[in-house]
Amino acid sequence: MYTNEMHLSFLSISQNEAFARTAVASFVASLNPTIEELADIRTSVSEAVTNAIIHGYRSEDNGTVYIDCIIEDMTVSIDVKDMGEGIEDVSLAMQPFYTSMPNLERSGMGFAVMQAFMDSVDVESAIGQGTTVRMKKKILAES
What we know:
Layout: E1 3-11, H1 16-28, H2 35-56, E2 64-72, E3 75-82, H3 90-93, H4 110-117, E4 120-126, E5 130-138
Antiparallel strand pairs: 1-2, 2-3, 3-5, 4-5
Helix pairs in contact: 1-2, 2-4
C-alpha cells in the first residue's frame, strides 16, 4: 500500500492560487495520473482556493489558506481550509449559479465544477470559524 501526505499553508492572496494548484498537481504526479485527471484536480483545487480567498477572507491579504493532501493507494484526498467567515447555508452555496457576491461578477459554479471533476466533495463550515472543502479522486491506473 502506497501512502504519502503533504501539508501546505500560504497567505490568502490571489497570486497563490496558481501556486496551490501547481503544488498539488506536483504532489499527485507520483500516481502517474492522466492529463485529464491532473487537469480535473488542478481545476478543483483552483476553485476551492479561490473560494477561500474571495469568500472566506473577503479578498483580504491577512488570512491563511491550508491544504492537506493524502495519497492512499491510488486515491488522493485534498482538504482546502480557511479560518474565515464561514458559510451560513452550505447546501444553498453548493447550488449552481448561487453566489453571495454578485457585485464581483462571480458565476456561482465553483462547487459544481468541483463536484463534476472529483469523485466526492464535502463541505464543512461554521460562521466565524471557516470552511473546509474535502475532495477525493481515485486515479485510474492505465494498463
